[in-house]
Amino acid sequence: MDVINEIFRLLFGPDPELRQIIGVTLRMSTLSTLVSALLGIPLGVILGSTNFKAKRFVNRILHTLMGLPPVVAGLIVFLFLSRSGPFGTLKLLFTVTAMVIAQIVLITPILTGLTANIVSVKAPLIHETAAGIGLRPFQRMLYIIHECRVQFISTVLTGFGRAIAEVGAVQMVGGNVQFKTRVMTTAIMMQTNMGHFEFAIALGVVLLVIAFLINSLVSRIQESAGLA
Amino acid sequence: MISVQNVRVQAGGRPILDIPLLEFEEGKRYGLIGENGSGKTTLLRVLAGTLQPTQGKVTQQNPDGVGYMPQSPYAFSFSVLRNVEMALKNSPDRREQAARALEAVGMQNFLASRGNKLSGGEAQRMAVARMIAKPRKLLLLDEPTSSTDIRGTDSIESTLLNYTRDTGCTLIFSTHSPAQVLRLAEEVIFLDQGRILEKGPARQVLENPQTESARLFLQHWRI
Asked: Whole domain around residue A92: which residue ranges?
């Protein structure tokens, strides 16, 4: 009961930290998902609907990147943004921007791969049908995107779910700085290590509620499109 | 005149279509017959330009006037009417043309239905409407009635007969139905392992095949 009271106090009480952490988390996850979607979906459409010589090789690299460990992504971004790195002068390390960049590195291959898989199932049939009535390649591509739009929304929400639950990369490049780069996952880890379980549980509950809402939204969209 | 010259298509190193010369007269109706894997679909795809042959060429005077319907035509998720309108691009009265084409195949009650909710047979009828919504020079149909019931088949066949008569369009279709060949085709082309073994008037080829392969195939067909 004490834990529940503590959760409500943290969420709705005068202490701004929890609300601030939730705000940074949502801002970071939304931005990184949007940029990843803008990069990953067009790449996935091209990859899933065209045939070229090195396609198998590209797919192999993509599948490897889809399983990229977050700490490795974090390390790469860290090295690029550190003072002695190529982008050190931008002074982005330990900022929300750095965390967004790390998440883009992680999520873009996932969105590209999922999109390519979706498109590769429908594209041959759509291509052939549309070519048969005289539509040009660009028009065919637009129809492919139109026919896969519901699955694309699910893909983007999957990416958002991945972003909001990620901890390794954002810890490395964000540094978990209070009132600046602290997000829900890094805060849970820190509070648990410090023995502040109420705070960690409160954050965990919020994280679970957001994950539940995302999953509900995905299911709703799929059901309305007759996919579930 | 549509001419196929020295066309060869290979898949996985083996030839799946090998045609030294094949000519189609304008305005005639041709039926492609043969076992599964004999090259009917490959030939239709080469004629449609959706498959580039490994070697050889297809010559036709009006490539823009070609309509090709694959074996499993895709039904887009928007309305049936819009599915047919797609084929009419910038035509000012495309709505009326599309509605007329759908009426011709007996789908006047499906105009507002969503394409992806149609049954296989309905989707084929809609795809045929998409083909005949405007005048074409050449229609290539891959098993256009493979999923339709008797009424649907009847509707498609009579629509195609009327359309080819009214527009002077050449029709090339593949089928597994001997009765359909006799009803719809003037000439029959029998394919076996990617080669053309028989070509001639429909009844003549069906009743008096000249090659052993065609005789065996037609024997099974009659059973």
From this structure: 2-224
For the stretch B49-74, pLDDT in tens is: 999 999 999 998 777 789 999 999 99
Q: Give pTM, 2 decimals.
A: 0.81
105-134 of A, contacting B, C-beta below 8 A: 122, 125-134
Computed over its alpha carbons, how large is the radius of gyration of chain A? 20
Q: How far is CA A84 from the centre of its chain?
A: 28
Dihedral sign from CA coordinates of B158, B160, B163, B169 = negative
Inter-chain CB proximity B67 and A134 less than 8 Å: yes
Residue with tokens 């009426």: B103
The interface predicted TM-score (ipTM) is 0.89
Architecture of domain B2-73+136-222: 3-Layer(aba) Sandwich (3.40)
Chain B residue numbers touching A132 (CB-CB < 8 A):
48, 50, 67-70, 73, 140
- Suggest the residue from A49, A51, A126, A128 to mutate for an interface test with chain B (most B CBs closer than 10 A): A128
Lookup: tokens for B209: 């095949």
CATH number of the domain encompassing residue A78: 1.10.3720.10
Counting the structural domains of chain A, the total is 1
The alpha carbons of chain B give a radius of gyration, in whole angstroms, of 17
